[in-house]
Write a structure and sequence with these properties.
Distance between the termini: 17 Å
CATH topology: Alpha-Beta Plaits
Number of domains: 1
Helix content: 10-25%
Oligomer: single chain
Largest sheet: 3 strands, antiparallel
Order of helices and strands: EEHEEHE
Bound molecules: iron/sulfur cluster
Number of strands: 5
Radius of gyration: 10 Å
Number of helices: 2
Strand order of the largest sheet: 1-2-5
Length: 64
């Protein structure tokens, strides 16, 4: 498990669908070259939890 500033991402659960990256309205989530989400610009995260809700693999938890 990778714990960043306020988002927990459990990479083993991620199926690399990319939906979290597409739905984030703040440009916090990008996909790396292996379609694995990476969380950047965390200061811009408004804790809307759209990424958490859209992830059917329960790989993301917004910790606020
Ligand atoms: S929505 Fe979930 S399964 Fe899909 S890329 Fe994001 S973290 Fe991975
Ligand atoms: S909680 Fe909202 S703003 Fe923060 S990373 Fe997830 S989708 Fe983006």
């Amino acid at each position: 498990m990778i714990l960043t500033k306020s988002i927990s991402f459990i990479s083993d659960r991620c199926n690399k669908c990319g939906k979290c990256s597409l739905i984030c309205p703040k440009g916090v989530i990008y996909l790396n070259g292996f379609f694995r989400p990476i969380f950047v610009n965390l200061s811009r995260c408004n804790a809307c939890k759209r990424c958490e809700r859209i992830c059917k693999s329960n790989a993301i938890e917004v910790l606020l």
